Amino acid sequence: MKDYKKTCSKEELEFLNAYDSEKYKKPSVTADIVIFTMDEDDDLCILLIRRGGFPYKGCWAIPGGFLEVDKESIDEAARRELFEETGLRDIPLTQLYTFGSPDRDPRMHVVSVVYTALVPKDQLKIRAGDDASDAKLFKIRYENNGLYFRSTSVMISKEDLGPEDVPSEELASKDLAFDHADIIQLAIKRLRNRIDYEPDAFALLRDPTSFTIFELKKIHESIKNRSLDTANFRKAFFRSYLATGRVRDRNEKREDTGHKPAELYEFLGNQS
Amino acid sequence: MKDYKKTCSKEELEFLNAYDSEKYKKPSVTADIVIFTMDEDDDLCILLIRRGGFPYKGCWAIPGGFLEVDKESIDEAARRELFEETGLRDIPLTQLYTFGSPDRDPRMHVVSVVYTALVPKDQLKIRAGDDASDAKLFKIRYENNGLYFRSTSVMISKEDLGPEDVPSEELASKDLAFDHADIIQLAIKRLRNRIDYEPDAFALLRDPTSFTIFELKKIHESIKNRSLDTANFRKAFFRSYLATGRVRDRNEKREDTGHKPAELYEFLGNQS
DNA sequence: ACAAAAGTGTTCTATGTACACCCATGT
DNA sequence: ACATGGGTGTACATAGAACACTTTTGT
C-alpha cells in the first residue's frame, strides 16, 4: 500500500502529484475512548475528564482528541490518547462505533471514531492532561431506567489527595458533554454482550498471571450487574478456558485471606 | 443538540462564532458500502464498481463517496450512496467498521466508515453512476484459503444486455482497489456471525411477505457456505421466529413448483 | 462458633446435530 | 416411476440455570 506511487504509471503519478485534496470541504475526525476499570469496591467504572474550555466547559466527557492527519491511523490515534490520559500502553483497544452527525459539536462537523479500552485495576495512574482541568473515575449506576455516574471515593491524582479531599459527585446522563452519554450507553451494552464469548474480563484483573476464579467472577458480576452462581461459573470457566488451554492452573494458592485458600490461575491469551 | 447555541452563554457564543475550524489539517471522510445480494443461482454476491479514474483506474471497488460536510451524517451519506448506486431506499444498513490508515489512498489521508447493506433479490437495478464506468455483481468464492470473485452471468445494466454479451470475469482479492479486499473479508465474517442471531437473512428474500422455509434456508446456506439439515433448520425457525411472533404463517401454499406445495410465511419484523 | 469464600454434585431444560423416514407434486 | 423438495420423529451430546451440600481457612 505504501509503495503505490512507485509502481504506478507516469500518467497516474502526474495525476497524483497534481491532485488538490483541499478542493472539497472536510470534517474533523477524532478518536475517543471509553475507558473501563474496576475500582476498589469491585464496581465497574469509566474514566471521565472535565472539559476546561468551550464548548461544554465544565462538563464531563470521555477522553479523546483529533487525528493527526498523514501521521497516524485512527487506531494509533486512540492508543496515543489512551497513553496521554492514563500513561498505559499495550492495552487491548477495540473499535466501538463511529458517530458523525453534523450537529454533534457546535464548533463544526466532527466525526468521532470511538474505541473501548479495558484497563486493569491499580495500574491506572490518571494524568490530568494540559487541556483537561480534571480527571475522575465514575461508578456506573442504573436507576429508574436511566444511566447515572458517581465518582469513586478513592482517587488517584497528581497530588495524591486523600479520600476526604475529593467529595463524591453524582452525574446524570444529561450532564455529559456532546453525545457522550449515548456513546457510553452503547459501550456498556457491547461490553455486556462480549463478556459471554470474548475473554474481555481477563483484561480487568489486577494480575492476569495470578488470579482466582472468584476474582474473575466479580468482574463478570459487575459488568452484568447481577450476581452469578458459583458452581455454574466454575463449570463454564473450566470448559471455556482451562480445557481450551487459554488458562493455566498455577498449582499455587492465594492464602491469608480470612477464608479457605483458593487456587490460582494464569491467563495465557489467545495464542494457539 | 441542535439548539446548543441558543442555550449557551454570551461568552461561549462569542467563542463559537470566532472559532476557526480550519486551523488544523483534516482528513477526508467517505461512507462506503458492502452491498450483498443473492443471484439467480442462490449464491451470495456483492456489488462492485469499476473505477473510471485514478487512482486504481480500471480496478473493481465497493461503492462509496465523500461525506457532505455540515449537510448529512455518515449514516445519511451511506444511504445516499446506496440510493445513487442501486436506486434503493429503506434498506437495512449496519455500520461495519471504520478504516483510517494514512496510506489507504495515495491521494491523501482518507477515513472510510464502511456499512453493510442487504439488498433483496430482483429489486436491484444497478445504475452505473457518472463517475463509475461499470457496475457488476460478483459471486463470492472461497478457494485455497483465499477470497475470489466471479461475475454473475445474468446481469442487469442500463442497456439490458443478454447473458451472452457479458463475459464471465474472475477476480482475486489483490485485484481490488485500495484495501477493499480486507473490507469485504470483514463484512463476510460479520455477516456469518450475525446470521445465527440476527434476522438478516429475511432482508435477502425475494419477498419477505411470502416465502417458504426452503427459500430462507438457501440464503443461510450460501452465507455459511455449507448445507444445513432440513429438520434442524425448521425446528430453529419455528422456535426463533414463529413462536416469538416475528414471523406469521400465511396459511397459503406455494404451488406449481414441480414438488409438494410448501407453506408460505410472512416476516413481520422486530416490532413488539 | 462463625463468616466468607472454595469447591462438588444432581437435576431439569433448551439447544445443536445427526439421521431415519414418510409425503405430495409435476414431469 | 422418479426426482425434488416438504415435513415429522427419535436419539444423543452439550450448555445454562437452579439449588443443595461439604470443606477450609482466619478471626
Q: Please tell me how large the radius of gyration of chain A is.
A: 22 Å
Oligomeric organization of the protein chains:
homodimer
Global outline of chain A: globular
The chain-level mean pLDDT of chain A equals 90
Q: Return residue spans of chain A where pLDDT drops below 50 for at least 5 consecutive residues.
A: 155-164
State which percent range the strand residues of chain A make up. Answer: 25-35%
The share of residues in helices of chain A is 10-25%
Biggest sheet features of chain A? 9 strands, mixed
Which two chains have the most extensive interface, and how many residues on each? A-B, 44 and 44 residues
Notable features of this structure?
homodimer; 272 residues; alpha+beta; two-stranded antiparallel sheet; globular; DNA-binding
How would you describe the overall organization of this protein?
Two copies of one chain form a homodimer. In chain A, strands 1, 2, 3, 4, 5, 6, 7, 8 and 9 form a nine-stranded mixed sheet that branches. Chain A starts with a helix and ends in a 5-residue tail after the last strand. The first copy, chain A, is α+β, with helices and mostly antiparallel strands. About 4% of the residues of chain A have low confidence. At the A-B interface, helix 2, helix 3 and strand 5 of A face helix 2, helix 3 and strand 5 of B. The structure holds a DNA duplex (27 and 27 nucleotides).
